[in-house]
Design goal:
alpha/beta; globular; two-stranded parallel ribbon; 35% helix; 7 strands
Amino acid sequence: DCVEICELSMSNLLRQGKVDPEVFLSRADSLQKVGKTVLVSRLAEFYRISAYLSRYTNEPVGISLSIGLLNELFKDKWSSHLSGGILESFGRLFKNDLQLYVYPWKNRKTGEMINASNFMPPKDLEHLYRFFQERGLVHDVECGDEDLLRYTGRDLKQFIESGDPRWKDYVPPELHEIESR
């Protein structure tokens, strides 16, 4: 009995400059078309999302994210404003028994599959990441079909913009009308 919520952060879009409201709403509409509940926020940090969700439930909260976003969590820019730095950031993140579910990434050049189990954080924080793993706070999301990892969202966007029909093989049929937008 899990409630899945897809969070779209205006904060991330605003960092890129001006937000095209039509494009933003199109993202939310696309998620809703495939049956997802969408939460629009202005929260950039995962610990803030965790705190927000924890206000409305006593049930466990999990956040699924990519290897790329897991790597982002270890960057100073997300915790430099906190007096406790990265330790405070992670302390806030995991405060309410939050769990991270990490989906894999396949390196195109080497073919290596990177997941939560073999992820390498910055050298000086390896011990901290191992602690998270040992406590059962970080989990791998299994990918049944590695072909789904062949392209990124950016790749699919480029396919759509260039008229390359391969993108349709990687998105649900309910979204195939996107091409006309």
